[in-house]
């Protein structure tokens, strides 16, 4: 069987070539990250995002067609997501509280959620 081609190490500043599957040379193999969830994530329906949510979301987006964050910046962008202003974290009372909903476009929703959940290198907010 032919050998896999050599590739540069993924470590910052390292120019060594390797054939390792993890992307790092032998000297930087410890930098390879593996992510394992503490517990498996429930399905979206089990987390409350079933048919009833889909219907409520569609109605909310019809009544609120523009992204609130973009509007605050003077831009006009169509909303595509209903965001929980305060994360509900499984609290169904807070989940269904319409005063806790806001209409956001995809990029604004992704940025807000990543900031809350620790994405993009941010620390998780509690």
TrEMBL record:
Q: Does the keyword Oxidoreductase apply?
A: no
Q: Write one Gene Ontology MF term.
A: endonuclease activity
Locate the HNH nuclease domain: which residues?
55-110
**Listed Pfam families:** HNH
Which GO cellular component terms, listed alphabetically, does the Swiss-Prot or TrEMBL entry include?
cytosol
Keywords assigned: Endonuclease, Hydrolase, Nuclease
Q: Would you indicate the residue range of the signal peptide? A: none
Family listed: Belongs to the HNH nuclease family.
Name it. Putative HNH nuclease YajD
